[in-house]
Inverse folding.
């Protein structure tokens, strides 16, 4: 990890003074060079060092098509939110860590009017289809600890600091069994194939400040995936990519009017995160679509 001389002077020799479970945090700064400090910094980025404190992220952007031999098309705008909280977990060998639980919404907006779309004109089919907005509950993460089960250090600070600011990128390639496909994906394909790319950034002094239980964070997000199932593309060549940017908010009231309207009228549960001991399997657009949609078989020649 490379750090400026100024930041080295701040963190060198300091004792980690952040209490993960208290109602306030100690004044000693976070030492990013230790496994314990890395855990605290990551927790402050993701949520709060105070157990069960709700934290909101939001993002806005655009979704485009990508097909061979033709120009990309703007399909729709997107506006999303994630409400989350962290809880402390202690392990005799792995140390004191945390678990994050969350749920998220992303709505699809008309690119001209900015209004929520419930019907969308699919330009590749020449007809309208029903829109299924993202409503994934839960979207949880496995526990994070400073040490492994064999008591070896595993947590590291992967951010980069330059002139008082930090930034971190995270790339998540996804390739696994597709719940909307059959049982022979090993032989004929059809696996879920996507990638998510995140950029997190903020001010270093804010991140390591032991008096603050959460960090001020901005985020960039790119998602590349196959056609969304509600688009009814029936295996046509191509993909969708979403490019968005956002930030951590002070609270629910800072969400956009469109998101608050959607939550108030259609999804009030998304005002708060799931409980800290939530053990449900994670939801995705694909799993939610399967739960809400009756399966059909293609007729000979397919649908038109």
């Amino acid at each position: 990890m490379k750090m400026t001389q100024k930041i080295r002077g701040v963190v060198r020799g300091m004792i980690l003074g952040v209490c993960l479970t208290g109602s306030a945090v100690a004044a000693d700064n976070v030492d990013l060079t230790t496994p314990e400090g890395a855990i605290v910094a990551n927790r402050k980025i993701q949520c709060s060092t105070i157990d069960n404190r709700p934290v909101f992220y939001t993002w806005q952007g655009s979704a485009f098509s990508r097909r061979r031999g033709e120009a990309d098309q703007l399909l729709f705008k997107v506006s999303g939110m994630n409400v989350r909280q962290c809880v402390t977990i202690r392990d005799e060998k792995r140390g004191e860590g945390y678990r994050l639980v969350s749920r998220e919404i992303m709505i699809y907006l008309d690119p001209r009017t900015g209004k929520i779309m419930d019907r969308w004109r699919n330009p590749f089919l020449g007809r309208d289809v029903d829109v299924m907005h993202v409503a994934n509950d839960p979207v949880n993460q496995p526990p994070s600890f400073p040490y492994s089960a064999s008591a070896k250090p595993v947590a590291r600070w992967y951010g980069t600091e330059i002139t008082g600011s930090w930034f971190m990128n995270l790339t998540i390639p996804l390739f696994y069994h597709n719940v909307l496909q059959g049982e022979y994906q090993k032989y004929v394909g059809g696996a879920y194939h996507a990638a998510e790319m995140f950029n997190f950034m903020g001010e270093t002094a804010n991140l390591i400040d032991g008096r603050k239980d959460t960090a001020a964070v901005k985020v960039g997000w790119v998602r590349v995936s196959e056609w969304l199932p509600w688009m009814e593309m029936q295996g046509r060549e191509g993909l969708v990519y979403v490019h968005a940017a956002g930030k951590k908010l002070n609270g629910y009231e800072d969400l956009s009017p469109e998101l608050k309207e959607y939550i108030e009228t259609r999804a009030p549960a998304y005002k708060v995160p799931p409980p800290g001991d939530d053990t449900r399997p994670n939801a995705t657009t694909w799993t939610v679509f399967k739960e809400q949609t009756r399966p059909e078989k293609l007729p000979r020649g397919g649908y038109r």
